[in-house]
Input
Amino acid sequence: MAETTAQTRPGGRSAKVRAAVHRAVEELVAEGPAEALTIPVVAARAGVHATTVYRRWGSVAQLLNDVATSRFSGDVVVPDTGSLAGDLERWVGDVATDLADPDVLALMRATIGSGPGGGSACTGDRHAQLGAIIEREQARGGEVPSVGTAVDTLLGPLYYRAIFSAEPASGEWARGLVATLLAAIQCRVPPGGPTSR
Amino acid sequence: MAETTAQTRPGGRSAKVRAAVHRAVEELVAEGPAEALTIPVVAARAGVHATTVYRRWGSVAQLLNDVATSRFSGDVVVPDTGSLAGDLERWVGDVATDLADPDVLALMRATIGSGPGGGSACTGDRHAQLGAIIEREQARGGEVPSVGTAVDTLLGPLYYRAIFSAEPASGEWARGLVATLLAAIQCRVPPGGPTSR
Output
């Protein structure tokens, strides 16, 4: 009896429900506008009771945050090419490729639209990855930018282009952002900024 | 008879309906999660027939795009301080102040969440303003960045921080972005980027 087996292994059952609900959210978001996304609709698509979804996630916003956190964690690998320039170029290329996927953009838009915490659910892992790349270069003894400057120079334009602009983020353009960041290390802005004209 | 007067001045009546519907959307978005936003709900709040809203805007996405375009146009004035550094510093400060308003963020999130065109409805006027600032400096005979570089260096981090990060965008941090942009003009990235290590 499959049902009994499932009930005696709550971890396995719970993981199956989670996977079915996550898949349902990703499908529904990819199919249409976020206004149609409600917990009963998600539950019906996932083949589970709406009360199960309410009990576990509480709201569409929390559910979307969970799906986005899971979808955008570990999907891009932190490279180890032996140099900061190499690592960053590989990594921004992978992020740009991810952001060119219409389903990724649809999930990001829906998660942002669901409430204040949505944006950071999409990018929390990117910050961690950028921090790991910079830390590795420090361990190599190289000169590094601060994580904050790297976020501003790399993630800022990458996500701005994905969400706020219709321009596609090409790999070449993304590698240009890395060049800008590395040039800024070699040519530090003097305190107080450059001389005003 | 006010009704007759209104009917003989369709422009005036139409403008009133538009203002009431826009105000209703801004209020509803500021109050709660975007999932509650439907055309009947907006119409009820605005005191107009739902069919009027359907006929004029077609969908919640189009309505939000219209409200965002209108809200984010002309709200920040293009300054004329006499220098590129001065103009940009004043302008990014005003943009950062705007982006610190919770109602602005709620409208942006809802508009982004409504579909693919939402993001550019929020920032179209910012591109135009940045272009105008750069054009004025060119007319003064000064050296200028490309609009694309300025978008990447200024709008990228400003909007990334507003939507994807929990960190507030202080005026000091925003002026630092201007310093970075101006330093990059004085210290051009060599073609092909800086020397890789």
Remarks:
- Chain B touches chain A through 58 residues (CB under 8 Å).
- Residues 84-186 of chain B form one domain.
